[in-house]
Amino acid sequence: MGTRCFTIFGVLIIIFLFGNNVRAQSLSVVSGAFDDYYRSAQLLGEVDSTVSFMVRPLYPSLIYKRDDAFNPLDTALHRNLPFTNNTITLFGQSGKLQILPLSLKQQYNSARPYGWNDGAMIPAKGYQVMISAGAFFKYGPFSVQFNPEIVFAQNTSFKGFSGPELYPYTAGIDMPERFGSESYSKLFPGQSSVRLTVGPASLGLSSENIWWGPGRRNSLILSNNAPGFYHLTLNTVKPVKTPVGFFEAQILGGRLENSDIVEKPEDWRYLSGLIFSYQPKWVPGLFLGLTRAFQMYHKDVDGLSDYIPLFQAFQKEKTNENDVNRDQLSSVFARWLWKEENAEIYFEYGRNDHAVNLRDFLMEPDHSRAYVLGLSKIIPLKGKRLKEFIEINAEVTQLETTETSLVREFPIWYIHYQIPSGYTNRGQVLGAGIGPASNLQSLQVSWFNGLKKLGVQIERYVHNNDYYNAIVGSSNGAVKPWVDFSTGIQGAWDYKNTILSGGLNLIRSKNYQWRQQDYNAELDYIRTPDLYNLQIKLGAMYRF
C-alpha cells in the first residue's frame, strides 16, 4: 500500500468532519519537545510508572489521561473552528476528528552533512526543510491517522571522498555520502496509520517511525533516524497488567526500500521485528526486555518461517541460517526508573550475529556486540514559585568491533555480506544514526519548565573506527581517527498554541575523512586541517 492509499484515507477524513475531542492518537517519535516532556514527566512521577518508554510511538491519552497528546499542560487554546467542532452519532457511536499540529522543521549545515534522528530529512549540506500536517479520525475501535511529510533539501556539494570506490560504506551498505548531485525533494506518508484497537492491543498498517529500546540519543535496532517504512503491526498501546507484572510488546513485518543513489540489488527487503518489555511486580520501576530483527530480500522470502523467523533459536547450530540469505540483529535492554530520586539508568546490549552455540556465547559474549549506556537525573530548583528543574543526561554508544576481530571474522553493525543494502531504509540506517562501527559520548544539561526548555549539549563522535583500523590506520599509522567534537545550545518555548524550537551547534572535525595532508617524514606525522561546520536548527509547531 503506497502513498496514494494514505492520501485517499486523508481525503476521507476531511470529508467526514466529525469533531476534535479525541483519545488515543499516537505521539510521533519525531515530535521533539513532546517526546522529551513525557519522559521527564515520568521521572517526576507525573506519568504512569508502568510505562517502559521502550516501545514508541506512545499513546499519551492512555498513559497520561489527556484527550490531546499535544496539549499536556492545557496551554493551547482550542479555536473551535467551523471544520473541527462538529460531532455526529452513527449506530450509537460518536465519530471524532482532531486536526494534528502543523509542523515546520528547518536545518542548515554550513560545510558538510551532519546530524541524525531527524526522520525523513537527509544528511545534507545547505538548507533543508520538512513540513508535516494532518488529521486523526476515530470511530469506535477504528482509527485513521493521516500525517504526511514533505522534505526539501538544497543538498549542495561539499568536500567529500574523491570517488565512490573510496567511500567506506559503498560496498556493504546503502548509505550514500550525498543524495544525488541536485536538490532533493520528496513526499512521504510520514506518521500515518490505519488501526483497529481493542483494549490494550492494536492491529494496524502504518508508516510511522518506531523507536525500540531505552536510549535517548541512539537506539541499536529501530530509531527515528531514517524515514518511516510501511509495516503491519500488532502492538500494545498501554502496559498489560498481569499477576506477575506489566508487559508491553510489538511484532511487525515491513518493507524497506533502497535509496536509488548507490548501486544495489533492485529488490525491496522484508523486515520482521519483535520487542518484548516486562516490569516485574516485585521491583517497581525496573524494565527488562529484548528485541529481534531479521531482514532479507523479498525474492528470497519462502514460506511462513521467513515471514516470521522471530522465534527461531539464537544459536547457529540449531538453525539453517547459513543456507538463508538473511541478516539478524538482536539486543537485550534494561531501564531502572527511580521516582523518588527523579532519575533513571538504562542500557541496551546487542549482537549483530548469532553465536555458533552456547559455548561460543559464553567464551566470547562480546563478539559482534554493541551497546548503549545512559543515565538521567532531574534536580528541582528550590525557592521557585514555578516548577523549574535542571535535567542531566549522559549517554554512551559503542558500535566499534571488539578485539575478537583479531582472531575471527566479524560482522560490522548494520553491514552484512548477504544483504548488500545493509540495515537501512531509503539510504539511512534504521538504528543508531551515527552509523556503522562508530562511537558517541554525549552530555546534555538543560533547564526546563513544562514544555519550555533550554540546554547545552557536548558530544564526541568517532566515525567508523573499524574502517580506520582495517584500512586507513593499518596502511599508514600516522593517520589518526576521524573525530567530531560538537558543542551546542538548544531549546524549545511554548506560547499558547505555538511551540518554537531551535539549536545551534559548532562541530569541529579532527582528521576529517582521514585525509592525509602536510606529511612530515622526519616526525612520521600527518597534520590535517580541522573542518568546522555550523549547524542551525529552527522549528515551529502550531496546535489547532
Please, could you describe this protein's structure?
The protein is mainly beta. The protein has a single domain (3-542), classed as Capsule assembly protein Wzi (Porin, Beta Barrel), CATH 2.40.160.130. It is built from 6 helices and 28 strands. The protein has an 18-stranded antiparallel β-barrel. It has a two-stranded antiparallel sheet with strand order 1-10. The radius of gyration is 23 Å and the shape is globular.
Main features:
Porin; about 550 residues; mainly beta; 6 helices; two-stranded antiparallel ribbon; 18-stranded antiparallel barrel; globular
Ordered list of secondary-structure elements with their pairings:
Elements (H helix, E strand, L loop, with lengths): L2 H14 L16 H11 L11 E2 L3 H4 L24 E3 L2 E17 L16 E14 L2 E5 L2 E5 L30 E5 L4 E6 L2 E6 L4 E2 L18 E6 L3 E3 L2 E12 L12 E12 L5 E12 L6 H4 L19 E12 L4 E9 L6 H6 L5 E12 L8 E10 L25 E2 L2 E2 L9 E11 L2 E11 L2 H11 L7 E13 L2 E13 L8 E2 L4 E2 L4 E12 L2
Antiparallel strand pairs: 1-10, 2-3, 3-4, 3-28, 4-5, 4-6, 5-8, 6-7, 8-9, 9-11, 11-13, 12-13, 13-14, 14-15, 15-16, 16-17, 17-18, 18-19, 19-22, 20-21, 22-23, 23-24, 24-25, 25-28, 26-27
